[in-house]
């Protein structure tokens, strides 16, 4: 059973970089052909796909967030990390990491519990 766990600061100041790490157990982030993604849900809004990394290390991001999004991985720790730069209060959300369905960038079946990130001074 694949399990994912988000970690990172719950409070980030405006203009700083949000950094969240997802630790995966029960499955490898290099396993074909899954994507490992980040999804967020702002208060009162729908889920929003932020970006993902494929098993080869290729990264993908939402067009609206692409200029501020970076995704990295540490295969030795089976972790992948989201960096979202120049944050504003509009980036306040519950952030989830998740594993995709096979070969599907936008559909996810295994999710972390989510972590609240608030952008505020």
Instruction: Please provide the ordered H/E string of secondary-structure elements.
Output: EEEEEEEEEEE
Instruction: Provide the structure class.
Output: mainly beta
- Give the quaternary arrangement of the chains: single chain
- Level of helix content? under 10%
Structure description:
Helices cover about 0% and strands about 50% of the residues. Strand 7 (about 70-75) and strand 8 form a beta hairpin. The model has no long low-confidence stretch (mean pLDDT about 95). The protein contains no helices and 11 strands. It is mainly beta and about 120 residues long. Strands 2, 4, 5, 6, 9, 10 and 11 form a 7-stranded mixed β-sheet that branches. Strands 1-3-8-7 form a 4-stranded antiparallel β-sheet, with no helix packed on it. The chain has strands spanning about 5, 10, 20-25, 35-40, 50-55, 60, 70-75, 80-85, 95-100, 110, 115-120.
List descriptors:
single chain, 121 residues, mainly beta, seven-stranded mixed sheet, four-stranded antiparallel sheet, 11 strands
What is this structure, in a nutshell?
The protein is mainly beta and about 120 residues long. About 0% of the residues lie in helices and about 50% in strands.
């Amino acid at each position: 059973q694949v399990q994912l766990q988000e970690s990172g600061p719950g409070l980030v100041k405006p203009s700083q970089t949000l950094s969240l790490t997802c630790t995966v157990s029960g499955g490898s982030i290099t396993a074909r052909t899954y994507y490992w993604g980040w999804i967020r849900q702002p208060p009162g809004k729908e889920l929003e796909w932020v970006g993902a990394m494929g098993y080869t290390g290729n990264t993908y991001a939402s067009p609206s967030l692409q200029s501020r999004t970076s995704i990295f991985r540490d295969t030795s720790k089976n972790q992948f990390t989201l960096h979202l730069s120049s944050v504003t209060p509009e980036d306040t959300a519950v952030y989830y990491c998740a594993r995709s369905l096979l070969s599907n960038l936008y559909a996810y079946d295994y999710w972390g519990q989510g972590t609240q990130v608030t952008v505020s001074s």
